[in-house]
Amino acid sequence: MSDAPPIGVLLVNLGTPDAPDAPSVRRYLAEFLSDRRVVEIPQILWQPILRGVILPLRPKKSAHAYAQVWTDDGSPLAAITRAQTDALRAALGGPVRIAYAMRYGKPAIGPAIDALMAEGCDRILVAPLYPQYCAATTATVVDAVGAHLATLRHQPALRFLPPYHGDAAYLDALETSIRAELAALDFAPDILLASFHGMPERTRTLGDPYHDQCQSTAQRLAERLDRPIEVAFQSRFGRAKWLEPATDARLEELGREGRSVAIFAPGFSADCLETLEELAIRGKEQFAAAGGRQFAYLPCLNASAPGMAMLEALARRELAGWL
Questions:
Q1: CATH (domain of 141)
Q2: What tens digit of pLDDT does each residue of 274-285 get?
Q3: Is pLDDT above 50 for 1?
Q4: Nearest-angstrom CA–CA distance, 214 and 204
Q5: Does some domain include residue 2?
Q6: Mean pLDDT of the chain
Q7: Which own/partner contact pairs does 35-39 have at CB distance under 8 Å and 24+ positions apart?
Q8: How many domains, the chain?
Q9: Same-domain pairing of 12 and 68
């Protein structure tokens, strides 16, 4: 039996409020929207807007949206990330310890790293669950890990899972999942629409590769499925120009054209508010109100067999030389 210390794997997702109520949402938004990578407005200008306008008004509306998708196990994002953690633990086992954290909210990244180190892990793979790189997602995980390590005298060795927007394991999982979901529908959709989370157009002009990586994922998947895939961007916020086309606007256009649509969100590793409420509920309502015919939301990879095969393959590759 090896005396080598265990190896840690930390899955990291964006985050969620503790409960679907206004105080919990307010705490979550205050942390999330105070991140300088998420909102790149100078803080001296942004914080009065955040504290004086957004936090007093937005949490009640967002809490109502969260309440529509909340489960007996809590937030869908948290429940699914826990399920992914459990499944990866069962798949890797042995000398590997698996934990998860949220970039905003709980469980936080710092305590999760401390817990892995308390189990004896002096080598940790940090896995941001974002297929496409974006400074407002992937980079903030690296920021948070670095900030916590700056407080530690005894630091672990670290590796980070790179973005996997074009990785064969990711594309295999998407192809398998989407083929199965489409086969289960009682209609053949005219349009297959990939909805990615939006970002301000300014981030693209400053060099963020997110837009190009989203387009690359859709193009490679379209080649595998041998059918066109449209790309749109959801979750616009504020008055700045965002990446286009906007998902809600495109759904209304397709509705007016009387089309049938299957929409999916390949940039999300787990279903959450932005997929279950914004797309599957609100998007469907917007599409139908505009005159659309059939509509289907295809779920994220979540803890499905294809999704977990992908996560295991990515983890084993990044742990090479440690295992």
A1: 3.40.50.1400
A2: 999 999 999 999
A3: no
A4: 12
A5: no
A6: 97
A7: 35/104, 35/136, 35/140, 37/135, 37/136, 37/139, 37/140, 37/143, 38/136, 38/140
A8: 2
A9: yes
